[in-house]
Amino acid sequence: MLEGIKEDIVCLPVHDAVAVQQQHQDWAREVMLETWQEHLAAKLALKYPRADIIGALIFAVALLKRQLVVE
Known about the structure:
By secondary structure, the protein is mainly α. The chain contains 3 helices and 2 strands. Strands 1-2 form a two-stranded antiparallel sheet. The radius of gyration is 14 Å and the shape is elongated.
C-alpha cells in the first residue's frame, strides 16, 4: 500500500491482498511479489546468516511463484 502511495495508485487492503483498479493489476502483482521476496530474504538472512542464503532464497522464491495463483 505504501508503494501505491508513492505511485499515486489507490490500494485497499483485503485480508492478505490489495484491491486496485483493473488497469493497475499487473503493477500490484509485481509489487506484492517484490515486497514478499524482500521480506523473505530478510527473514532468511536472520535465520541463516551463512553464504548459502542465496540458494535458500532462490529455492523459496521458486516455491512462492509456483503457489501464486492470479486470476
